[in-house]
Amino acid sequence: MNTTITNPSGEKLDYRFHGDASDKSKIVLIGHGVTGNLDRPWAEGLSNALAATRIPALRFSFAGNGESEGDFRDCTVSKEVADLGVVIDAAKAAGYEEIIYAGHSMGGAVGVLRAASDSRIGRLISLAGMVHTAKFAEVEFGMETPDSGFMWEDEDCPLSSTFVNDMNAIGTVLGKASDIHVPWLLVHGDADDVVPIEESREIFAAANEPKQFVELPGVGHVFADDGLKPMIAAVTGWLQS
Q1: Distance CA 131, CA 199 (A)
Q2: CA distances, 179 to each of 115, 140, 203 (Å)
Q3: Mean pLDDT (the chain, rounded)
């Protein structure tokens, strides 16, 4: 896949394609979480593994992250839902028949909102997916002052009121679970200290069939170290089943 992807704000999105470009039967689009980008080890590892199993994959950075154009201070769940829409547009224009979206953390919340309203997503994968957005903003960044503080003390990631207001306006994506009518895989480590595994358990209970939930013992939020292989195995196994 070789095309320019531009979001509704006119910002070019950076992406990497993995796999056989001639196979148009399906493609997995991979979106990251807050402060992340397409180069996160879990995203690259998953993309390479999918390509090795003959499933094309495209990992991308939401606007304002990584090498994608845009201002990080404008990043919100709502804006990223629109970003995902144009990535789907590009995949469809390239001829891919089935669109599968795999979103990590905040990218998981993005996936729920997009899949609840966009029938072009044929399968959904949530990796340590965020469910309660307002709670996340309060727990992780409530001690910071929007427009002057930073996310996790990282000066490259300023905490904006735009971000906080959007997280609070959404509140939670739990109620959207019943609007998703495609196969859904949830993968979450029980040692996650950023997005508690209870959030995946809660939205899984509210989800329609067909669905599958894989809990990974001792695995943290970003599937680092020994957590990468079992996450990849869960995703590739589900896609091939």
Answers
A1: 6
A2: 8, 28, 12
A3: 97
SS (H, E, C) 42-58: HHHHHHHHHHHCCCCEE
Q: Residue 32, Cα to own-chain centre: how many angstroms?
A: 5
Residue with tokens 């629109």: 82
CATH number of the structural domain spanning residue 63: 3.40.50.1820
Three-state SS for 197-229 is HHHHHHHHHHCCCCEEEEEECCCCCCCCHHHHH
Indicate the length of the chain as a whole number. Answer: 241
The answer on pLDDT for 59 being more than 90 is yes
| Burial class of residue 207 in the structure, from the number of CB atoms within 10 Å of its CB (0-12 exposed, 13-18 middle, 19+ buried) | buried
CA distance 76 to 63: 10
pLDDT in tens, 85-135: 999 999 999 999 999 999 999 999 999 999 999 999 999 999 999 999 999
Residue 22 is part of which domain span?
15-240
